[in-house]
Amino acid sequence: MRLNRLFVASWLIALIVSATTLMWSCSHRVHDIDTLTVSIPPQKFLLDAIVGDKMKVNCLLGNGADPETYDPSMSHLINVEHSLIYFRVGSIGFEDAVIKRIKTSRPDLKIVDTSEGISFITGTHHGHDNDPHVWTSAVNARIMARNMYEAVAEADPSNAAYYKSNLDRLTARIDSIDSAIKTYIAAAPSSTFVIWHPSLSYFARDYGLTQIALGAEHKEASVNELRRQIETAKASDARVMFLQHETDNRQTSIVTAELGIPTAVINPIDYHWDEQMVSIGRSIAGLTDIK
Questions:
Q1: Torsion from C-alpha of 65, 71, 74, 76, nearest 10 degrees
Q2: What is the crossing angle of helices 160-186 and 138-155, to 10°?
Q3: Which residues contact 105 (CB under 8 A, 6 or more apart)?
Q4: How far does Cα 175 stand from its chain's mean position?
Q5: Could you tell me if 241 and 221 are in contact, meaning their C-beta atoms sit under 8 angstroms apart?
Q6: Could you list the residue ranges forming a coiled coil in this record (predicted)?
Q7: Beta pairing, strands 85-88 & 55-59
Q8: CA 210, CA 192: separation in Å to the nearest integer?
Q9: What CA–CA distance (Å, rounded) separates 61 from 249?
Q10: 225 φ/ψ angles, rounded to the nearest 5 degrees
């Protein structure tokens, strides 16, 4: 009788362990599709192109959200926790907070830094060693896409050839965008542009442009600093000023009136990375998207 009870108890324990293991192994799957999480929409654009219908890609930051002030909700943290892989940009502030909070509940979560291998720009942002806007560059986008491909191919080797084929198509698309922008820039009336927040440093480096940033990271610049920057912009013969869609302060209207140059509204964290990149190039060339 005692042996029977021991047998039943052992069987129940084994059943519970098996069920728990099965539940955990399926926790990062939605309708039998693995889920991945990225930090920002441009990453999702790249990763969607690579994984196709083989995996679902969640994004922490919405199209209208501000990465400087974003605070992940509980549902976003749960999405990360249930992901097969979390792809971070690399130098965005909220990412460290997300990882710190999720590590306690999911210590084995695979985290991939998609900026690995990128040559960083420094000194543009207070509080950041590296300029965080690495995705605003065709050169960097190729590196980020390759890093993503290698991670998903390792996690899902049975579909590696599918992912590689998609990567090749994505790379060709990036090459095409890069070539188009070079054509626009070659015909641009000026190699200098004005911007409020310094979010196009990598774009400027790719194409030999000069970026004059007027703002001070979501703060109004001092009168003296703003005056100095305006004079620099005037002397440079800049022909366009970029405003990000969330930019809204009284200094922007003062600056645009004083400079007397067209403005173009951009959204560097928009999902449609390809359209944004081309639009920026065309605006510098004075072709479109200018007010």
A1: 40
A2: 180
A3: 81
A4: 19
A5: no
A6: none
A7: unpaired
A8: 5
A9: 23
A10: -65, -45
CA–CA distance from 26 to each of 29, 96, 145, 269 (Å)?
5, 26, 26, 31
**Domains of the chain, with CATH numbers?**
27-179 (3.40.50.1980), 188-284 (3.40.50.1980)
d(CA 195, CA 284): 12
CA gyration radius, the chain: 23
The percentage of residues in the chain with a pLDDT greater than 90, rounded to a whole number, is 58
3-class DSSP state of 95: helix
Task: Tell me the whole-structure pTM to 2 decimals.
Answer: 0.85
Q: Could you read off the pLDDT of 160-202 as tens digits, one per residue?
A: 999 999 999 999 999 999 999 999 999 999 999 999 889 999 9
Cα(229)–Cα(21) distance, rounded to whole angstroms? 60
In the chain, the amino acid numbered 31 is H
Cα 101–102–106 angle (5° rounding)?
A: 145
As given in the structure block, the two tokens for residue 119 are 């040559």
Q: Hey, what amino acid is at 71?
A: D
Tokens found for residue 55: 């995996």
- Separation of first and last alpha carbons in the chain: 87
| Amino acid at the residue 258 | E
Sign of the four-CA dihedral 7, 13, 14, 15: positive
